[in-house]
Automatic annotation (TrEMBL), chain A:
<dbReference type="GO" id="GO:0016151">
    <property type="term" value="F:nickel cation binding"/>
</dbReference>
<feature type="binding site">
    <location>
        <position position="93"/>
    </location>
    <ligand>
        <name>Zn(2+)</name>
    </ligand>
</feature>
<comment type="similarity">
    <text>Belongs to the HypA/HybF family.</text>
</comment>
<feature type="binding site">
    <location>
        <position position="90"/>
    </location>
    <ligand>
        <name>Zn(2+)</name>
    </ligand>
</feature>
<keyword id="KW-0862">Zinc</keyword>
<feature type="binding site">
    <location>
        <position position="76"/>
    </location>
    <ligand>
        <name>Zn(2+)</name>
    </ligand>
</feature>
<keyword id="KW-0533">Nickel</keyword>
<protein>
    <recommendedName>
        <fullName>Hydrogenase maturation factor HypA</fullName>
    </recommendedName>
</protein>
<dbReference type="Pfam" id="PF01155">
    <property type="entry name" value="HypA"/>
</dbReference>
TrEMBL record, chain B:
<keyword id="KW-0533">Nickel</keyword>
<dbReference type="InterPro" id="IPR003495">
    <property type="entry name" value="CobW/HypB/UreG_nucleotide-bd"/>
</dbReference>
<feature type="region of interest" description="Disordered">
    <location>
        <begin position="220"/>
        <end position="263"/>
    </location>
</feature>
<feature type="domain" description="CobW/HypB/UreG nucleotide-binding">
    <location>
        <begin position="35"/>
        <end position="195"/>
    </location>
</feature>
<keyword id="KW-0378">Hydrolase</keyword>
<dbReference type="InterPro" id="IPR004392">
    <property type="entry name" value="Hyd_mat_HypB"/>
</dbReference>
<keyword id="KW-0547">Nucleotide-binding</keyword>
<keyword id="KW-0862">Zinc</keyword>
<dbReference type="GO" id="GO:0016151">
    <property type="term" value="F:nickel cation binding"/>
</dbReference>
Length: 131, 263
């Protein structure tokens, strides 16, 4: 259950980009999560709400874009959807020299901010650890 | 008015940077880090104790860090080898992170250590996502765990440089289907080598140390297909859109559609 650590890392990364004073409030955070990233989206959504409490992300919506696993065989150039669990041997030639084209993404894509709330003291970003 | 920042930041970038720094520092000091991943009860502590003892007898300076949520039991077992051992407590966290390991090593790692074994928290899910600065990552599986373990935990086995089977002495008794296990490993990690070990009979003892010393000497490790998808995204300068829209107006930013609900 490392989704709490992932959620806290997202909050830290987004908090570091706050450049306004008083700080803007995040309304929506968009994440890219690959099929093979080893992250359970539902667990991440649950943890995200907890990780945002008391930060400039409090109340922000989380939007997760899932990315399918795709691989390409280097010798025969066949491309295929890896599925889960992934099939990483080439389905055509059986070769072991494939390249993963996508599926391992775990990335903050963008953040939408609302207007800063005037006269609000700066909210420190939190960096608690998972219990 | 609202503002949109295109960040494109890898969520694990901070850990990856710390791991790269630790790998550089350790390598510069002549130490190769080995990260051992397995489920609880796979026998990695006993195997590691045998490896440390083997190294000590051969006069190879080794050390070990063992990570657990609680208790110093594993550190006490490993210390019987005579090698320097440190217990890392994760305070309930299900995995080690590079900064945690770095803090654990500071002021403790003996000079001239050639191989540092890190016994990660017994867990095949979470530790797989965290680079610790290792030069050799080993996933272990005991013969009692079932041949389909590599398919159930594809990240742990798919990102390993080497796969180790433990408790091979009871493989027949528990009906371990080695060919099925090998086929499952190859599906998620084509080309990776699989080594059989038994801490009880001594089969394979010294193999982990030998592999680690080979990596230290410059031997190239296996490159997992799954790891080829981990291209590090450098933190980009945030790209900002500033917009004033009518309430509820929708429009596209690049490939994504989103509504700016503020004016």
């Amino acid at each position: 259950m490392h989704e709490m650590s992932i959620a806290l890392a997202v909050v830290d990364q987004v908090s570091e980009t706050v450049r306004t004073e008083p700080p803007a409030l995040a309304e929506e955070v968009r994440l890219q999560v690959g099929e093979l990233a080893g992250v359970v989206p539902e667990a991440l959504e649950f943890c995200f709400g907890l990780a945002c409490a008391g930060t400039t992300l409090e109340g922000a919506a989380l939007h997760i874009e899932s990315v399918p696993g795709l691989a390409r065989c280097s010798p025969c150039a066949r491309e295929w959807a890896t599925g889960m669990p992934p099939q990483l041997c080439c389905p055509d030639c059986g070769g072991a020299r494939a390249e993963l084209l996508s599926g391992r993404e775990l990335r903050v894509l963008r953040v939408r901010w609302s207007d800063p709330v005037p006269a609000t003291p700066a909210t420190p970003s939190r960096t608690p650890r998972e219990p | 008015m609202c503002r949109v920042d295109d960040l494109k930041h890898d969520v694990l970038a901070q850990n990856n940077r710390s791991a790269q720094r630790l790998r550089r520092e350790l390598t510069a000091g002549g130490t190769t880090l080995v990260n051992l991943l397995s489920s609880p009860g796979s026998g990695k502590t006993q195997l590691l104790e045998a490896e440390l003892t083997h190294a000590r007898r051969g006069g190879v300076p080794v050390a070990a860090v063992t990570a657990d949520l609680a208790t110093e039991n594993d550190a006490e077992r490993l210390a019987r080898s005579g090698a320097p051992v440190k217990q890392a407590f994760t305070d309930g966290l299900c995995h080690l992170e590079a900064d945690m390991l770095g803090r654990c090593l500071t002021g403790w790692l003996p000079a001239h250590t050639r191989v540092l074994f890190v016994e990660n928290v017994g867990n095949l899910v979470c530790p797989a996502s965290y680079d610790l600065g290792e030069s050799l990552r080993i996933a272990l599986c005991s013969v009692t765990e079932g041949e389909d373990k590599p398919l159930k935990y594809p990240s742990a086995f798919g990102l390993a440089h080497l796969v180790v089977v433990t408790k091979s002495d009871i493989a027949t008794a528990v009906g371990f289907d080695e060919s099925a296990f090998r086929a499952n490993v190859q599906q998620v990690n084509p080309g990776v080598e699989i080594v059989r070990t038994s801490a009880r009979t001594g089969e394979g003892t010294g193999e982990l140390l030998r592999r680690a010393l080979a990596v230290r000497a410059g031997e190239t490790v296996h490159q997992p297909v799954l790891a080829s998808g981990d291209r590090t995204t450098q933190p980009a300068q945030p790209h900002t859109h500033e917009h004033a829209h009518e309430r509820g107006h929708q429009h596209d930013h690049g490939t994504q559609r989103h509504a700016d609900a503020h004016s």
